[in-house]
Amino acid sequence: MCADLCCEEKCIHQDIVNKVETHLPNDETLYDLAELFKVFGDSTRIKILYALFEAEMCVCDIAELLNLTQSAISHQLRVLKSAKLVKARRAGKTVFYSLSDEHVRLIINQGMEHVIE
Amino acid sequence: MCADLCCEEKCIHQDIVNKVETHLPNDETLYDLAELFKVFGDSTRIKILYALFEAEMCVCDIAELLNLTQSAISHQLRVLKSAKLVKARRAGKTVFYSLSDEHVRLIINQGMEHVIE
DNA sequence: CTTTCATATGAACAACTGTTCATGTGTTTA
DNA sequence: TAAACACATGAACAGTTGTTCATATGAAAG
């Protein structure tokens, strides 16, 4: 059904259009998915997640380990927490952060595979 | 080795610090990884990739299918191509785009699993 | 060669992002 | 209660991003 689209000659057929429209998740889901990847799209946050791969940690440890300010880390942990990638546990004055689940590791590893070609 | 870090009491030990420093990829790799996820972090680009899951398509088809301007799609295809997520094939006036490899699908599916909980 | 069509690209703009700095909140200890 | 500590948060700032508009490139047809 090229006429419905732009090209004159050899463009996609109606059954492909239908297939896309069937398989394409709804806008809200796609938006959420993009938001999730956006969270992974910052090297500070990636570093925090890599640190938490090894053990749960408090904010100041992460800051010290990554050589960044406590405030910067705290802001980023907030983002990670909203995305449900990390969870927090309070122990007195200290707050320990850890990975929410194994999805985080899987997603990062999958991405890393593409990066290292 | 809490003294090396910030907290007074129960913070991470030196062997964990060592573990993180051993497993943490170098800055350039982490930067590349973040750049990769940044590319997935836009719903327009996600939609384009979903469309290409079904078949290779030319720019105007994608634009028509997603109800966006040809220019916007072209700009985004450039980003996707730089990240080696899609490849282009010229046929006369038309340029057909398709997925570079199966990593794309795997990364998106992995992200989707987290989104749909 | 000129026109037409599909695509690419540059400039401009508003919207968004990540850090810093200052300060607020909540918990423990003196 | 006051001080000290770990963490959270708001404002402000520079840097980045995605779209639009106008225009350029490159290929095919007349």
What would you say this structure looks like, in words?
Two copies of one chain form a homodimer. By secondary structure, chain A is mostly helical. In chain A, 60% of the residues lie in helices and 12% in strands. Chain A has helices spanning 14-23, 27-40, 43-54, 59-66, 70-82, 103-115; strands at residues 57-58, 86-91, 94-99. A three-stranded antiparallel sheet of chain A has the order 1-3-2. In chain A, α4 (59-66) crosses α5. The longest helix of chain A has 14 residues, at 27-40. The model of chain A has no long low-confidence stretch (mean pLDDT 91). Chains A and B meet through α1, α2, α3, β1 and α4 of A and α1, α2, α3, β1 and α4 of B. Chain A binds a DNA duplex (30 and 30 nucleotides) through α5.
Task: Name a few traits of the molecule.
elongated; 117 residues; DNA-binding; three-stranded antiparallel sheet; mainly alpha; 3 strands; homodimer; 60% helix
Mean pLDDT of chain A: 91
Q: Helix fraction of chain A?
A: 55-70%
Quaternary organization: homodimer
- Give the overall silhouette of chain A: elongated
Elements of chain A, N to C (H/E): HHHEHHEEH
The stretches of 5 or more residues of chain A where confidence is low (pLDDT under 50) are none
Strand order of the largest sheet of chain A: 1-3-2
Q: Kindly estimate the percentage of residues of chain A that lie in beta strands according to DSSP.
A: 5-15%
The major beta sheet of chain A can be summarized as: 3 strands, antiparallel
- Please name the two chains that share the biggest interface, counting residues whose Cβ lies under 8 Å from a Cβ on the partner chain: A-B, 61 and 60 residues
Count the helices of chain A. How many?
6
Compute the number of strand runs of chain A: 3
* CA-CA gap between termini of chain A: 38 Å
Which structural category do the helix and sheet elements of chain A fall into?
mainly alpha
What's the Cα radius of gyration of chain A? Answer: 21 Å
